[in-house]
Amino acid sequence: MAKVPGFAKAFAGRWRIVEMDVWDNDFLDLVEEAHLTFKGSADGEIAFGALNGFLDVRYGTRDGSACAEFSWEGHDENDPACGRGWVVFGTAGRLVGHFYIHNADDSGFVCERA
């Protein structure tokens, strides 16, 4: 397994998804509180709307900024789903990034520490 950079600790924990470009705020918390969670050195989870999934995370840089890139696998309305995404630190301690569902939608999103 690749060595995890020290800055990965800054991503650790639960982050509340507060905004997405494609889906409105009413949809985000449809089943449970919309969130992105980083656990351990390479694990995590995401949930919003009727989607939930487990992350496989790699830490690196994007345009010179610390970045968490991930693939994910889970379910959307009980149908198998998978995809990828990434986040970087934005302003005011928020995470900003982009989320992709394989062969389907994608959206920019913003998270605040929960």
Unreliable runs: none
Estimate percent helicity: under 10%
- Order of strands in the sheet with most strands: 1-2-3-4-5-6-7-8
Radius of gyration from CA coordinates: 13 Å
Distance between the termini: 29 Å
CATH topology: Lipocalin
Give the helices and strands as they follow along the chain.
EHEEEEEEE
Give me the number of helical elements. Answer: 1
How many domains? The number is: 1
| Mean pLDDT figure | 95
The total count of strands amounts to 8
Structural class: mainly beta
Strand content: over 45%
Per CATH, the architecture is Beta Barrel
Shape, per Cα inertia axes: globular
Largest beta-sheet details:
8 strands, antiparallel, barrel
CATH class: Mainly Beta
Structure notes:
- It is a single chain.
- The chain is mostly beta strands and 114 residues long.
- 4% of the residues lie in helices and 61% in strands.
- The protein has one domain: Beta Barrel (Lipocalin).
- A hairpin with a 4-residue loop joins strand 7 and strand 8.
- It starts with 12 loop residues before the first strand and ends with a strand.
